[in-house]
């Protein structure tokens, strides 16, 4: 019983931490979605001219803190830390409150989404190999809405395409749980591929000695 109580307490604390991260990250996420001038966000914050973005000033300590948290608690980053993942979970809870109907993805549609995922990932790799270029030079316009509007105008088609992709993928998450995480987030794809690679390495090293069999 004591172990069960500790487990429940741990789950509750992780849940509180998850939503705490989400609330703290809202300003940064909003600015990154609407104003980040770089092709791939979060990688060049120190050089960014968007002075009011929290990521510009606190990215490194936050990153170190989050990685430490993940290492200590052994939590899954996408499931327990990422604010967009938490946003999708909130969408899912709201939708299930309204309707219990589930939406299944057909094999054909899933294939299309998988192609989308790896297309985005490949595009990100190409962008990074080219120095993570900027869409535009950020201009401070006094308030957030004016700044966003100027960003849309100055960013051109490439910036607008990224914005629509991000907002579209997040919106689809209202219907399909964690759509952004599963099919659009390049960081999520990187984590997924890394996990698969580690699993394959472990399987390759396995000598089939039978010592770890559960049966």
TrEMBL record:
Presence of the UniProt keyword 4Fe-4S in the record: yes
Keyword Electron transport: yes
Transmembrane segments: 16-34, 111-129, 149-176
Keywords recorded for this protein, A-Z: 4Fe-4S, Electron transport, Iron, Iron-sulfur, Membrane, Metal-binding, Transmembrane, Transmembrane helix, Transport
Family matches, as InterPro entries: 4Fe4S_Fe-S-bd, Electron_Trans/Redox
CC terms in the record's Gene Ontology section: plasma membrane
Listed GO MF terms: 4 iron, 4 sulfur cluster binding; metal ion binding
One Pfam family in the UniProt entry: Fer4_5
Ranges of residues in domain 4Fe-4S ferredoxin-type: 63-95, 163-196
PANTHER family xref list: FERREDOXIN-TYPE PROTEIN NAPH
Name recorded for this polypeptide: 4Fe-4S ferredoxin-type domain-containing protein
Species of origin: Methanococcus vannielii (strain ATCC 35089 / DSM 1224 / JCM 13029 / OCM 148 / SB)
Organism lineage string: Archaea, Methanobacteriati, Methanobacteriota, Methanomada group, Methanococci
